[in-house]
From TrEMBL:
InterPro entries in alphabetical order: Peptide_deformylase, Peptide_deformylase_sf
Main enzyme class: hydrolase
UniProt record similarity statement: Belongs to the polypeptide deformylase family.
Listed Pfam families: Pep_deformylase
Keyword Metal-binding appears in the UniProt entry: yes
Catalytically driven reaction(s): N-terminal N-formyl-L-methionyl-[peptide] + H2O = N-terminal L-methionyl-[peptide] + formate
Signal peptide: none
Protein's recorded name: Peptide deformylase
Note accompanying the cofactor annotation: Binds 1 Fe(2+) ion.
Native species: Epilithonimonas lactis
EC numbers: 3.5.1.88
Amino acid sequence: MILPIRAFGDAVLRRKAQEIDKDYPELKKLIENMFDTMNGANGIGLAAPQIGLDIRLFIIDVSPLADDEDYEDIADELKDFKKVFINAKILEESGEEWKFNEGCLSIPEVREDVKRKSTIKIEYYDENFVKHTDTFQDIRARVIQHEYDHIEGILFTDHLSALKKKIVKGKLQKIANGDVSVNYKMRFPK
């Protein structure tokens, strides 16, 4: 089932999310609905706060990037990279910082360059509540960091310089007011 994505200005996007356990009600169905929602919006990541739940759960599927010529050198790694992260904790961020033009399903029509480290080490549970500690790099690390920020109550626009924040302020207010056109279901703040 496709769920509405919460828009910028919704308080749930600013809350630090809570951990869950393996008995969380209808977890498998929730994860399935999140993938349906993300795919329906042509996204590559989605965090539970973006659908109104302040729980430490996010999903990513970067397989669509495998066909992008910018990633042809890692296309094989990307083509099956679809993961669920529950109760994630980034243990380490390392490597060079690099800029990348990020966007967000909760902040449509706004894209800006964000600097992030190239490599992360993260501890998390998968959809079967099996614990993992993995290291990721390149675009995979970036998408994970972006979604991880969501469960920490942080948006990509928080990483912008004061000047860039000033420039996008009007666009963000329009989104919060529901004055944006998207091809997916959104729920705007009341």
